[in-house]
Automatic annotation (TrEMBL):
<dbReference type="GO" id="GO:0006282">
    <property type="term" value="P:regulation of DNA repair"/>
</dbReference>
<dbReference type="InterPro" id="IPR036388">
    <property type="entry name" value="WH-like_DNA-bd_sf"/>
</dbReference>
<keyword id="KW-0963">Cytoplasm</keyword>
<dbReference type="Pfam" id="PF21981">
    <property type="entry name" value="RecX_HTH3"/>
</dbReference>
<dbReference type="Pfam" id="PF02631">
    <property type="entry name" value="RecX_HTH2"/>
</dbReference>
<comment type="similarity">
    <text>Belongs to the RecX family.</text>
</comment>
<feature type="domain" description="RecX second three-helical">
    <location>
        <begin position="106"/>
        <end position="147"/>
    </location>
</feature>
<protein>
    <recommendedName>
        <fullName>Regulatory protein RecX</fullName>
    </recommendedName>
</protein>
<feature type="domain" description="RecX third three-helical">
    <location>
        <begin position="155"/>
        <end position="198"/>
    </location>
</feature>
<dbReference type="InterPro" id="IPR053925">
    <property type="entry name" value="RecX_HTH_3rd"/>
</dbReference>
<comment type="function">
    <text>Modulates RecA activity.</text>
</comment>
<dbReference type="InterPro" id="IPR053924">
    <property type="entry name" value="RecX_HTH_2nd"/>
</dbReference>
<dbReference type="InterPro" id="IPR003783">
    <property type="entry name" value="Regulatory_RecX"/>
</dbReference>
<dbReference type="GO" id="GO:0005737">
    <property type="term" value="C:cytoplasm"/>
</dbReference>
């Protein structure tokens, strides 16, 4: 057992408290954790309690880093898990659970934001969006759910045609048709879908 002999507020960081055990500086904790654990001078701590306090403080520091990581843009659970491994976090699942509890992590919300963000700059085919979401680590179930809520392939191709060719429908010349087919194909649309939509567009 070790005894807390001093509790000193940090000079550089007043939100931290330096703990001295048996007269020797041992480690620092946040003021909130000191209050939560009711730590005070004269209190005896076992080796297990000391280890637990140090681990909790390390997790709190990593948690703060992850909050900063999430402040730039939404992230997937997979992205955050990878970052936690970089930080060598010992309780990855615990930190992920804490983030979910405070609504910092939600793959469905991320997927909706991602699709809106991507299409705001440049319309993409559902196939391409699915591919990009999976690269981000979004599960198949979440991908299926969010993709079911967006415009279908025909609507997306039609919007791209209007964007490229204008509202006036007309029969395209062979070079124009080839150019638009190539463009839509690069966006991830299948040849059959492109042909069907372009044919309907020309016949209207």
């Amino acid at each position: 057992m070790s005894t807390i002999t001093r509790l000193v507020q940090g000079k550089k960081n007043p939100s931290r408290v330096n703990l001295y055990l048996d007269g020797v500086f041992s480690f620092a904790l946040s003021i909130d954790e000191v209050a939560r654990q009711n730590l005070k001078k004269g209190l005896e701590l076992s080796d297990e309690q000391i280890s637990s306090l140090i681990t909790t403080d390390q997790n709190d520091k990593i948690y703060a880093k992850i909050i900063n990581f999430l402040s730039y843009r939404p992230r997937t659970v997979s992205e955050v898990r990878a970052r936690l491994k970089q930080y060598q976090a010992q309780d990855i699942d615990g930190i992920l659970g804490r983030l979910r509890e405070h609504n910092y992590l939600d793959d469905l919300a991320f997927a909706k934001w991602f699709i809106e963000s991507r299409n705001a700059h440049k319309l993409r085919s559902p196939r391409m969006l699915v591919q990009e979401l999976k690269i981000k680590g979004v599960s198949d179930d979440v991908v299926s759910e969010v993709m079911g809520e967006i415009a279908d392939v025909t609507q997306t191709i039609s919007r791209l045609l209007i964007k490229k060719l204008g509202d006036t429908k007309r029969v395209l010349t062979a070079p124009e048709r080839q150019k638009i087919y190539s463009y839509l194909s690069r966006q991830g649309f299948s040849w059959d879908d492109i042909k069907k939509v372009v044919k309907n567009w020309e016949s209207e």
